[in-house]
Every structure is written in structure tokens, then in C-alpha cells.
Write a structure and sequence with these properties.
2 domains; 263 residues; single chain; mainly alpha
């Protein structure tokens, strides 16, 4: 259960009021917010327990935040923020950049605060980037391993998720991705495509380039230190570090891709 200050709840409500106004959640209708929670998190947001303080989308969201476990709340809030960024890019209009930056700082601070209350590694980086039963099962398997506090058991499936993620990102750009192409090769193609699409800050570009070797090392972990084969697996603390490191890059990628899937 998450206990937020009233000021933090107001920040969430005000952030999610864009673009329809207070009481709404982003651009969702009652139908589409139900679909969002069902498709992304296998949750029924229309359950009676989420309507205890009112049936508006705002009330259901804030009640959900107060009832559920921190790792799940953080995952939902991060997904909602990514959707909001996509909306701002498409229909932002006269957005005050300074106010937007402060809102982002406060909202992400709330997410970090929520995540810090859970010893379970966050799965916020794992989005359902395509409608696929295999992907759904894959993410659920990772979530089960993490909820059992066994990140070492999730390494193989996390690698498979990354393979799927970067294949999808390349496909949306009509870039060929062979079935036997290694993870670091897929990521290298993605970084090259991203650099051709936009002007990257030099630090960001260096970080992306260095992540090619990071994903190459992740290949080795998957092959030699996971349940993919008869291996001696990583110690839990080391596996947690690997999971968090890979997740950080996936979260960045999802942020720069905000709005692509919607469009």
C-alpha cells in the first residue's frame, strides 16, 4: 500500500488533468482507461474497490494508487507519464516549458519515492510494445520472478524481452532485423537510426554507444549465467544490479519513443 502526502496526490491529479481538465485522466474515456489497465497491467480498474471514493477516472486512479503495492503503482504512473509526454508532443499547444519541466520533476520524484518503498525491483521499464500473447506471458513471468525477489531467475526472460523490444523498434522504422541477430547488434542499429532522426546531446549519444557493449555483455549473461542453459547463475545482488541497469536504458528508450506507438 502506498501512502502519499495530499500535496503529492494533487500533483498527480493536476498532471493527469492534461488535456481534458480536472477530474479526467489524460485523453482517456471510461472505455479506453479500462482497456489501458487491462491491456498493460491485466487489471480491472472498474472494480468496486477502486470506486470507493467516486467513479470518476481521477478518483479511481487515486484510489488505485492508495490500495496497490508500490512496485505496481510506480509502473502505472510511469506508463501514464510516458503517455502524457506523447500527448504534449502531439497536441501541446501553448505549453509553458518552465511549468512543464517543474511538473515533470515533481511527478518523477513521486515515482522515485514510491519505488524506493519497495524492495521488489521495478518492472516499469517493461511495456507491451506489441499485441502478442508471447510478450504478455514473458512480462508476467518476469514480474512473478521479481515479486518473489528472485531477479537472477528473470535474466533469461529479460534478455528475450529486449530482443523483442528492439526488433519492434527497428520494424517500426522499416529496418531489417534478422531472427539470429544478436541483442547488441539490434541495439546498435537502433542507436544509428535514432541519431539520424534527431539531434542527440553528445552525452546521450555516448551513453547510447556505450550501451552497445552493455547489451553485448548481457548476451553473455543470458548464455552463461542464466537459466537459459545449465549454468551457474548470478548472485541475487548482482542480478538486481543487471536488471536495474538494463531497465534504466529501456526507460530512456521508451521516453524518446513516447507517442510513436499511439501514432
Amino acid at each position: 500500500m502506498v501512502h502519499l502526502k495530499r500535496s503529492q496526490v494533487r500533483t498527480i491529479e493536476e498532471t493527469m488533468a492534461f488535456p481534458q481538465g480536472f477530474g479526467y485522466v489524460l485523453d482517456f474515456s471510461d472505455r479506453t482507461i479500462a482497456e489501458f489497465f487491462e491491456d498493460e497491467f491485466q487489471l480491472d480498474i472498474d472494480q468496486a474497490k477502486y470506486s470507493e471514493y467516486g467513479t470518476s477516472k481521477r478518483n479511481r486512479l487515486t484510489t488505485f494508487i492508495q490500495l496497490e503495492e508500490p512496485y505496481l503503482v510506480a509502473k502505472v504512473l510511469r506508463a501514464l507519464w510516458d503517455r502524457r509526454e506523447g500527448l504534449v508532443r502531439r497536441i501541446g499547444g501553448a505549453i509553458n516549458e518552465n511549468e512543464e519541466a517543474e511538473m515533470k520533476r515533481q511527478f518523477l520524484e513521486i515515482i522515485a519515492n514510491v519505488e524506493g518503498r519497495s524492495e521488489i525491483p521495478s518492472t516499469a521499464a517493461l511495456d507491451r510494445h506489441t499485441s502478442d500473447r508471447m510478450l504478455d506471458e514473458l512480462i508476467m513471468d518476469i514480474e512473478r520472478d521479481l515479486q518473489a525477489n528472485k531477479p537472477e531467475a528473470a535474466m533469461d526472460h529479460l534478455h528475450t524481452y529486449c530482443m523483442s523490444k528492439f526488433r519492434r523498434l527497428l520494424q517500426t522504422r522499416s529496418i531489417t532485423c534478422n531472427q539470429d541477430e544478436a541483442l547488441h547488434a539490434r541495439f546498435g542499429k537502433y542507436r544509428k537510426a535514432l541519431a539520424s532522426e534527431r539531434s542527440l546531446n553528445p552525452f546521450t549519444d555516448r551513453a547510447l554507444k556505450s550501451s552497445i557493449s552493455l547489451f553485448e555483455g548481457f548476451n553473455d549473461i543470458r548464455n552463461n549465467s542464466s537459466f537459459a542453459h545449465d549454468n551457474s547463475i548470478l548472485e541475487p545482488a548482482e542480478a538486481r544490479y543487471v536488471f536495474d541497469t538494463v531497465s534504466a536504458m529501456l526507460i530512456f528508450v521508451r521516453a524518446v519513443e513516447a507517442g510513436r506507438y499511439d501514432s
